[in-house]
Protein backbone atom coordinates (compact mmCIF):
# COMPACT_ATOMS: atom_id res chain seq x y z
CA UNK A 1 0.00 0.00 0.00
CA UNK A 2 1.32 3.43 -0.89
CA UNK A 3 1.22 5.64 2.18
CA UNK A 4 0.77 9.41 2.05
CA UNK A 5 2.27 11.56 4.77
CA UNK A 6 -0.43 13.51 6.62
CA UNK A 7 -0.28 16.20 9.29
CA UNK A 8 -2.62 18.32 11.40
CA UNK A 9 -1.63 21.87 10.38
CA UNK A 10 -4.88 23.52 11.46
CA UNK A 11 -3.98 22.81 15.07
CA UNK A 12 -0.82 24.88 14.66
CA UNK A 13 -2.66 27.79 13.04
CA UNK A 14 -4.52 28.09 16.36
CA UNK A 15 -1.57 27.46 18.68
CA UNK A 16 0.84 29.90 17.04
CA UNK A 17 -1.26 33.07 17.61
CA UNK A 18 -1.90 31.95 21.21
CA UNK A 19 1.83 31.48 21.73
CA UNK A 20 2.54 34.95 20.36
CA UNK A 21 -0.03 36.58 22.68
CA UNK A 22 1.41 34.77 25.72
CA UNK A 23 4.95 35.80 24.80
CA UNK A 24 3.93 39.44 24.42
CA UNK A 25 2.36 39.38 27.89
CA UNK A 26 5.59 38.04 29.39
CA UNK A 27 7.70 40.59 27.52
CA UNK A 28 5.51 43.46 28.68
CA UNK A 29 6.90 43.25 32.26
CA UNK A 30 9.02 46.37 32.79
CA UNK A 31 12.69 46.24 33.70
CA UNK A 32 13.57 47.00 37.33
CA UNK A 33 15.57 50.15 38.09
CA UNK A 34 15.72 53.33 36.02
CA UNK A 35 19.51 53.27 35.68
CA UNK A 36 19.56 49.70 34.47
CA UNK A 37 16.67 50.48 32.13
CA UNK A 38 18.55 53.36 30.48
CA UNK A 39 21.65 51.16 30.10
CA UNK A 40 19.66 48.44 28.38
CA UNK A 41 17.93 50.98 26.16
CA UNK A 42 21.31 52.33 25.03
CA UNK A 43 22.48 48.83 24.09
CA UNK A 44 19.27 48.31 22.17
CA UNK A 45 19.64 51.50 20.14
CA UNK A 46 22.59 50.56 17.95
CA UNK A 47 23.19 48.69 14.69
CA UNK A 48 22.61 44.97 15.14
CA UNK A 49 23.37 41.70 13.43
CA UNK A 50 20.62 39.09 13.81
CA UNK A 51 20.92 35.32 13.47
CA UNK A 52 17.35 33.98 13.26
CA UNK A 53 15.76 30.52 13.22
CA UNK A 54 12.09 30.00 12.41
CA UNK A 55 9.34 27.43 12.12
CA UNK A 56 6.18 27.82 10.06
CA UNK A 57 2.87 26.40 8.94
CA UNK A 58 2.75 26.71 5.13
CA UNK A 59 -0.51 26.66 3.15
CA UNK A 60 -0.36 26.40 -0.68
CA UNK A 61 -2.77 28.11 -3.08
CA UNK A 62 -3.28 28.16 -6.84
CA UNK A 63 -1.72 25.34 -8.83
CA UNK A 64 0.57 24.49 -5.92
CA UNK A 65 -2.53 23.47 -3.94
CA UNK A 66 -3.28 20.92 -6.67
CA UNK A 67 0.03 19.23 -5.89
CA UNK A 68 0.47 19.65 -2.12
CA UNK A 69 -1.59 20.11 1.00
CA UNK A 70 -0.73 22.28 3.99
CA UNK A 71 2.67 21.45 5.45
CA UNK A 72 5.50 22.91 7.50
CA UNK A 73 8.77 24.71 6.90
CA UNK A 74 11.90 25.54 8.86
CA UNK A 75 14.60 28.03 8.04
CA UNK A 76 16.84 30.86 9.07
CA UNK A 77 17.97 34.38 8.31
CA UNK A 78 21.09 36.47 8.67
CA UNK A 79 20.05 40.11 8.96
CA UNK A 80 21.45 43.55 9.67
CA UNK A 81 19.21 46.19 11.28
CA UNK A 82 20.41 49.77 10.97
CA UNK A 83 20.12 52.52 13.58
CA UNK A 84 18.31 54.90 13.83
CA UNK A 85 16.41 54.05 10.65
CA UNK A 86 15.52 50.45 11.66
CA UNK A 87 16.03 49.27 8.08
CA UNK A 88 16.45 45.50 7.68
CA UNK A 89 18.77 43.88 5.10
CA UNK A 90 19.33 40.14 5.02
CA UNK A 91 19.23 36.74 3.37
CA UNK A 92 16.63 34.06 4.06
CA UNK A 93 16.53 30.30 3.44
CA UNK A 94 13.57 27.92 3.94
CA UNK A 95 12.98 24.17 3.73
CA UNK A 96 9.40 22.93 3.35
CA UNK A 97 8.28 19.39 4.17
CA UNK A 98 5.59 17.02 5.49
CA UNK A 99 2.64 18.21 3.43
CA UNK A 100 0.11 15.84 1.89
CA UNK A 101 1.00 14.96 -1.72
CA UNK A 102 -2.10 15.08 -3.93
CA UNK A 103 -0.47 14.00 -7.21
CA UNK A 104 0.28 10.28 -7.10
CA UNK A 105 3.26 10.12 -9.46
CA UNK A 106 3.65 6.34 -9.10
CA UNK A 107 0.02 5.29 -9.51
CA UNK A 108 0.77 3.65 -12.88
CA UNK A 109 3.15 1.27 -11.06
CA UNK A 110 0.43 0.12 -8.64
CA UNK A 111 -1.88 -2.84 -9.00
CA UNK A 112 -5.63 -2.71 -8.37
CA UNK A 113 -5.02 -2.78 -4.60
CA UNK A 114 -2.56 0.15 -4.86
CA UNK A 115 0.42 -2.09 -4.10
CA UNK A 116 3.79 -2.17 -5.82
CA UNK A 117 5.81 -5.36 -5.85
CA UNK A 118 9.50 -4.69 -5.28
CA UNK A 119 12.52 -6.49 -6.68
CA UNK A 120 12.49 -8.99 -3.80
CA UNK A 121 8.79 -9.79 -4.54
CA UNK A 122 7.69 -8.07 -1.32
CA UNK A 123 5.23 -5.21 -1.13
CA UNK A 124 7.03 -1.88 -1.31
CA UNK A 125 6.66 0.52 1.63
CA UNK A 126 7.24 3.62 -0.52
CA UNK A 127 5.34 6.81 0.25
CA UNK A 128 5.31 10.36 -1.14
CA UNK A 129 6.52 13.52 0.60
CA UNK A 130 6.49 17.20 -0.15
CA UNK A 131 9.77 19.08 -0.51
CA UNK A 132 10.30 22.82 -1.02
CA UNK A 133 13.50 24.88 -0.84
CA UNK A 134 13.78 28.65 -1.26
CA UNK A 135 16.41 31.33 -0.90
CA UNK A 136 15.94 35.08 -1.12
CA UNK A 137 17.26 38.54 -0.30
CA UNK A 138 15.14 40.52 2.14
CA UNK A 139 14.69 44.28 2.57
CA UNK A 140 12.41 45.56 5.30
CA UNK A 141 11.72 48.08 8.01
CA UNK A 142 10.77 47.95 11.67
CA UNK A 143 8.20 50.54 12.79
CA UNK A 144 8.31 51.06 16.60
CA UNK A 145 4.98 51.09 18.39
CA UNK A 146 6.17 52.47 21.78
CA UNK A 147 8.93 54.94 22.69
CA UNK A 148 10.21 52.75 25.52
CA UNK A 149 11.58 50.19 23.07
CA UNK A 150 12.29 51.44 19.57
CA UNK A 151 13.57 48.03 18.49
CA UNK A 152 10.17 46.40 18.83
CA UNK A 153 7.11 46.94 16.70
CA UNK A 154 5.58 46.33 13.29
CA UNK A 155 7.90 44.41 10.96
CA UNK A 156 7.41 44.82 7.19
CA UNK A 157 9.63 43.15 4.58
CA UNK A 158 9.89 42.39 0.87
CA UNK A 159 11.86 39.48 -0.55
CA UNK A 160 13.12 38.27 -3.90
CA UNK A 161 14.90 35.05 -4.84
CA UNK A 162 14.35 31.54 -6.19
CA UNK A 163 12.21 28.57 -5.15
CA UNK A 164 12.26 24.83 -5.92
CA UNK A 165 9.66 22.21 -5.06
CA UNK A 166 9.37 18.52 -5.88
CA UNK A 167 7.77 15.23 -4.86
CA UNK A 168 10.06 12.92 -2.95
CA UNK A 169 9.50 9.16 -3.22
CA UNK A 170 10.61 7.68 0.09
CA UNK A 171 11.45 4.04 -0.63
CA UNK A 172 12.29 2.78 2.85
CA UNK A 173 13.14 -0.78 1.76
CA UNK A 174 15.10 0.32 -1.32
CA UNK A 175 13.11 -2.17 -3.36
CA UNK A 176 11.96 -0.07 -6.33
CA UNK A 177 14.42 -0.30 -9.20
CA UNK A 178 12.10 1.97 -11.22
CA UNK A 179 13.06 5.05 -9.19
CA UNK A 180 16.79 4.51 -8.79
CA UNK A 181 19.49 6.73 -10.25
CA UNK A 182 18.51 8.92 -13.17
CA UNK A 183 15.08 7.26 -13.38
CA UNK A 184 13.99 9.14 -10.25
CA UNK A 185 14.01 12.39 -12.22
CA UNK A 186 11.08 11.15 -14.27
CA UNK A 187 8.85 11.03 -11.19
CA UNK A 188 9.71 13.96 -8.89
CA UNK A 189 8.19 16.82 -10.98
CA UNK A 190 10.94 19.20 -9.94
CA UNK A 191 9.77 22.79 -10.47
CA UNK A 192 11.69 26.04 -10.08
CA UNK A 193 11.13 29.73 -10.54
CA UNK A 194 11.58 33.30 -9.36
CA UNK A 195 10.15 33.98 -5.91
CA UNK A 196 8.64 37.20 -4.55
CA UNK A 197 7.41 37.58 -0.98
CA UNK A 198 5.84 40.04 1.44
CA UNK A 199 5.98 39.74 5.22
CA UNK A 200 3.94 41.55 7.86
CA UNK A 201 4.22 40.84 11.56
CA UNK A 202 5.57 41.87 14.94
CA UNK A 203 9.15 41.82 16.20
CA UNK A 204 10.31 42.09 19.80
CA UNK A 205 13.89 42.77 20.90
CA UNK A 206 13.60 43.05 24.67
CA UNK A 207 15.71 45.49 26.66
CA UNK A 208 16.84 42.75 29.04
CA UNK A 209 17.91 40.56 26.07
CA UNK A 210 16.00 37.59 27.48
CA UNK A 211 13.30 37.46 24.84
CA UNK A 212 13.84 38.18 21.14
CA UNK A 213 11.45 36.92 18.48
CA UNK A 214 9.25 37.80 15.55
CA UNK A 215 5.94 36.40 14.33
CA UNK A 216 3.74 37.10 11.35
CA UNK A 217 2.50 36.06 7.94
CA UNK A 218 4.63 35.65 4.82
CA UNK A 219 2.94 35.76 1.39
CA UNK A 220 4.86 34.09 -1.43
CA UNK A 221 4.50 34.06 -5.23
CA UNK A 222 6.77 31.83 -7.33
CA UNK A 223 6.77 32.16 -11.13
CA UNK A 224 8.27 29.01 -12.60
CA UNK A 225 7.98 25.85 -14.67
CA UNK A 226 9.00 22.21 -14.69
CA UNK A 227 12.75 21.56 -14.72
CA UNK A 228 12.34 17.99 -16.02
CA UNK A 229 12.29 17.07 -19.71
CA UNK A 230 9.88 14.14 -19.32
CA UNK A 231 7.32 12.84 -16.82
CA UNK A 232 6.79 9.05 -16.67
CA UNK A 233 3.31 9.22 -15.15
CA UNK A 234 1.87 11.42 -17.92
CA UNK A 235 4.28 10.15 -20.62
CA UNK A 236 4.93 13.67 -21.87
CA UNK A 237 6.84 16.85 -21.13
CA UNK A 238 5.35 19.59 -18.97
CA UNK A 239 5.97 22.92 -20.69
CA UNK A 240 3.38 24.96 -18.80
CA UNK A 241 4.24 28.13 -16.92
CA UNK A 242 2.85 28.21 -13.39
CA UNK A 243 2.36 30.58 -10.47
CA UNK A 244 2.63 28.96 -7.04
CA UNK A 245 1.18 30.87 -4.08
CA UNK A 246 1.91 30.21 -0.40
CA UNK A 247 0.67 31.77 2.82
CA UNK A 248 3.03 30.98 5.68
CA UNK A 249 2.34 31.55 9.39
CA UNK A 250 5.80 32.00 10.87
CA UNK A 251 7.40 32.45 14.28
CA UNK A 252 11.13 33.00 14.64
CA UNK A 253 13.69 33.20 17.41
CA UNK A 254 16.41 35.86 17.16
CA UNK A 255 19.99 35.96 18.41
CA UNK A 256 20.86 39.68 18.24
CA UNK A 257 24.43 40.95 18.44
CA UNK A 258 24.62 44.47 19.91
CA UNK A 259 27.37 46.80 18.73
CA UNK A 260 26.82 48.89 21.85
CA UNK A 261 27.55 52.60 22.16
CA UNK A 262 30.93 52.36 20.43
CA UNK A 263 32.29 50.40 17.49
CA UNK A 264 34.53 48.30 19.74
CA UNK A 265 31.83 47.05 22.14
CA UNK A 266 29.89 43.93 21.22
CA UNK A 267 27.30 42.48 23.58
CA UNK A 268 25.74 39.00 23.38
Verbal overview:
This protein is mainly beta. It has one domain: Porin (Beta Barrel). Helices cover 13% and strands 48% of the residues. Strands 2-3-4-5-6-7-8-9 form an eight-stranded antiparallel barrel. β5 and β6 (149-170) form a beta hairpin. Mean pLDDT is 84; it is low at 1-8 and 262-268.
Mean pLDDT: 84
Rounded to an integer in angstroms, the radius of gyration calculated over CA atoms is 23 Å
What percentage of residues falls in helices of 4 or more residues? Answer: 10-25%
Going by CATH, the architecture would be Beta Barrel
By CATH, the topology is Porin
Number of strands: 9
Largest sheet: 8 strands, antiparallel, barrel
Number of helices: 3
Measured distance between first and last alpha carbons = 52 Å
Helix/sheet category: mainly beta
Strand content: over 45%
Provide a concise account of the structure shown.
The chain has a single domain, classed as Porin (Beta Barrel), CATH 2.40.160.20. Helices cover 13% and strands 48% of the residues.
List keywords for this structure.
268 residues, mainly beta, Porin, eight-stranded antiparallel barrel, 3 helices, 9 strands, 48% strand, elongated, disordered C terminus
Topology:
Layout (H helix, E strand, L loop, with lengths): L2 E2 L4 H19 L6 H11 L3 E15 L1 H4 L3 E11 L5 E11 L29 E20 L2 E22 L20 E15 L6 E15 L14 E18 L10
Amino acid sequence: MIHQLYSEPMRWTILLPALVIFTLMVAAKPAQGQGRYLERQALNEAPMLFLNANYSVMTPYGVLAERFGTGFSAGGQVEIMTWPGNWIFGIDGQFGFAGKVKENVIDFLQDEDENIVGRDLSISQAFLQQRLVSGKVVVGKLIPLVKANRRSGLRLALGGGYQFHWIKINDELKSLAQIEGEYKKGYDRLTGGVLLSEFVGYQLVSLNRRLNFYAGIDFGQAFGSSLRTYDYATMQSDNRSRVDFTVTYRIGWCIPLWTGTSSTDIYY
